[in-house]
Design a protein that fits this description.
This protein is mainly alpha-helical. The chain folds into two domains: 52 residues, no CATH class; 107 residues, no CATH class. The protein is 62% helix and 11% strand. It has five helices and three strands. A three-stranded antiparallel β-sheet has the order 1-3-2. A hairpin with a 2-residue loop joins β2 and β3. α1 crosses α2 and α3 runs antiparallel to α5. The radius of gyration is 20 Å and the shape is flat. The model has no long low-confidence stretch (mean pLDDT 88).
């Protein structure tokens, strides 16, 4: 990966967000606010944040910001809703007497530039039942779709990728 010019302020901000995130995970897992457990959680969170902050920018991730964190939570809600909706759609197709499916492979085009953003998009599509990302080639994703509704790139992109891409663009770029 390319070496980025990261300022000290961005490093400190990313460390702080990693620390808060690690501590929140600790508190959620322990379900306790006793002083000893919170103290151990803070100590472990500091170590984890120090360790992860060294690798954070090497992964090509952008610096943390409140806007990105907000969009991450919105994205997770949208992803959950899309997974739920797709589960019902696939279940309907399985129990329907005629199994109305039209499987096929389509290409969608993404406007995402970073590899990690494209990977997040591909994984989001794969997590949604009825679709599976086969490959990422440049700005194109090759998708197996259980019920092809649009064969052209623009139509398939709108139906499959755009619901996630607008959030991922803010989070990763």
């Amino acid at each position: 990966m390319e070496q980025q010019n990261i300022t000290a302020a961005e490093r400190i901000k990313s460390f702080a967000y990693l620390l808060v995130f690690s501590l929140a995970v600790w508190l959620a897992l322990t379900s306790s606010v006793e002083i000893q457990e919170v103290g151990v959680g803070i100590a472990i969170s500091v170590v984890v944040a120090l360790w992860l902050s060294r690798y954070y920018f090497r992964l090509g991730l952008p610096p943390f910001s409140a806007k990105r964190v907000l969009f991450l939570f919105i994205y997770l809600v949208v992803l959950g809703a899309e997974i739920l909706k797709a589960n019902f759609d696939v279940a309907y197709r399985v129990i329907h007497p005629k199994m109305p499916i039209n499987p096929g492979i389509v290409v969608i085009k993404t406007g995402l530039k970073s590899d990690i953003a494209k990977m997040a998009l591909a994984n989001s599509i794969t997590l949604t039942p009825g679709t599976f990302t086969l490959d990422i080639i440049g700005d194109n994703l090759l998708i197996h779709w259980i019920n092809v509704k649009a064969e052209e790139v623009e139509g398939a992109t709108e139906a499959i990728g755009e619901r996630f891409e607008k959030y991922l663009k803010v989070i990763f770029e």
